[in-house]
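quick one, 192 residues, struct below
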Amino acid sequence: VGEVMAIGRSFQEALQKENGEFYRGVMYGGFIAVKDGVRLIEYNARFGDPETMNILPIMETDFVEVCDAIINQKLNKIKIKFQNKATVCKYIVPEGYPDNPVKNVKIEINPKQIPKDARLYYASVDQKNDGLYSTSSRAVGCLGIADNLEKAERIAEEATKSVKGKVFHREDIGTKKLIEKRINHMKDILSK
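---
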């Protein structure tokens, strides 16, 4: 965490030096762990899809208050609170994604199949007179919210069943098996 924060501070200082003023906004980074520390892959200055979908629904602090604190450089003066919940987001994508996705194909969503603790977020879709159509990218984000990851994953997986059409999703996202695989991979990297 210390390395990530140091990279963030350096990035913010470089932005300020380059632009002549303090950056006020959202900033999140994609990092990779390597044997001798952490490396930055990219920074984004926007609300990212799954990154935002996973945290904003469980944030208890008023979002406008957080934005106001960012603008006025007083974010350190407020306590941002989150529900003690786990979230898992699974994306519905068009068949053939990412290399050769089908485009402009009608999808249907049955609201009665969406579990109580799930949320669906429309992403790369078009609303037409006769319904909803997927474009060539991530069409619908299915978010599960629960007391633990296992339950949140099951809710998200159940929510994916509400979307019909020439689409698919990765069933392994958020599963215990995939998480353990990633943890073991990290341990392997750090032990070398």
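The chain has a mean pLDDT of 93.
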